[in-house]
Amino acid sequence: MPRKLLAILGGLIVVAGIVASSALFTVHQTEQVLVLQFGEPKRVVKEPGLHVKLPFIQNLQRYELRVLDLDPPRQQVILVDQKRLDVDSYARFRITDPLLFYQSVGNEFGARQRLTAIINSSLRRALGNANLTDILSANRDAIITQMTSEVNASVERLGLQIVDVRVRRADYPEQTSQAIYNRMRSEREREAKEARAEGFELAQQIRADADRQRVVIIANAEREAQIVRGQGDADAINIYAEAFSRDQQFFSFYRSMEAYRDSLGQDGTTMVLSPNSDFMRFFNSMSGTATPR
User: Fold this and answer.
1) C-alpha separations of 125 from 77, 91, 157 in Å
2) In angstroms, rounded to a whole number, what is the distance separating the alpha carbons of residues 243 and 265?
3) What count of Cα atoms within 13 Å lies in the side-chain half-sphere of residue 37?
4) Which residues pair with 34 in a beta bridge?
5) DSSP labels for 132-150?
6) What distance, in Å, lies between the first and last C-alpha atoms of the chain?
7) Are 63 and 159 a contacting pair, CB within 8 Å?
8) Crossing angle, helix 139-155 and helix 108-128, to 10 degrees?
């Protein structure tokens, strides 16, 4: 009898443990719990700690209480000036109403799909009324603020709240970027050709001016040289004339000696002259002098 009583008591303890494990649940501080009964929402539990539910009848749907990230795929947007941009955006959101969230999207996967469509639609509308200058200037914050407000207004019915929406990157499409690069390259090549042509023209002007200055300098130098030679010749003539006027006989003798030296040098020159020629008059004089003629 005691053995049967112990077995019954043990069975009751096991059953009680199973019932207690099914009736008790814990809520972490980073999550919120929706209690369901046969798929019908009954209550929302957000307070962390130990809680009780009906065993075997009610089940739990747990949702994150923390901020979640969303990284929508890159999409192409047409600006108001008809320029195309590949825009890469991201968003952060949280679940504010688990009951409404469960009724509208069910889980995070469905929520991310709905949010992606809403954010992309709002992004196209916001950037479709802006130009590239607005995106690259301080007006970008106003565009993002407007887009965040529109998205929040659209996701309230889903039990969600958008914390932040940002444009991570906005680039031209590959074809447009290549066309812009080719245009910029052509423009730089044109500017380089113009700079080379202007440099060549300037170099030609500098060379022509240098040649002109060279010709002028040489002409002035030759003119000054001719003037100096003329002055030198004039001075030499004056010196010779003065010397001749002082001693005509010595001057005649000196000039004849210079003529002898120049004509009767050591170059093997042979001269045939009459002994009575005027050129040899100083050789005909026995005394070494000759009577001027």
Assistant:
1) 9, 17, 20
2) 26
3) 8
4) 44, 61
5) HHHHHSTHHHHHHHHHHHH
6) 189
7) no
8) 140
Q: Report yes or no: 28 and 54 within 8 Å, Cβ to Cβ.
A: no
What does DSSP say about strands 75-78 and 84-95: parallel, antiparallel, or unpaired? antiparallel
Q: What is the pLDDT along the chain (293 residues), one digit of tens a residue?
A: 566 666 666 666 766 666 666 778 888 888 999 888 888 888 888 888 888 888 878 888 889 889 999 988 888 887 777 777 888 888 999 999 999 999 888 888 889 999 999 988 888 888 878 877 777 777 778 888 888 888 888 888 899 999 888 888 777 766 666 666 777 888 888 899 999 999 999 999 999 999 999 999 999 999 899 999 888 888 888 887 777 777 677 777 777 777 777 776 666 667 676 666 666 666 665 444 444 44
Total-model pTM: 0.53
Closest by CA position to 100, among listed 119, 114, 86, 88: 114
User: For residue 77, which phi and psi values (nearest 5 degrees)?
Assistant: -120, 140
Alpha-carbon gap, residue 50 to 28, rounded angstroms: 9
Q: How is domain 68-176 classified at the CATH fold level?
A: Tetrahydropterin Synthase; Chain A (3.30.479)
Question: Can you tell me the distance from the alpha carbon of 214 to that of 41, in angstroms, rounded to the nearest whole number?
Answer: 105
If you search the block for the tokens 């020159």, which residue do you land on? 269
Residues 6+ apart with CB under 8 A from 57: 37, 38
The tokens of 221 are what?
């130098």
> Which of 96, 154, 98 lies closest to 126 in space, CA to CA?
154
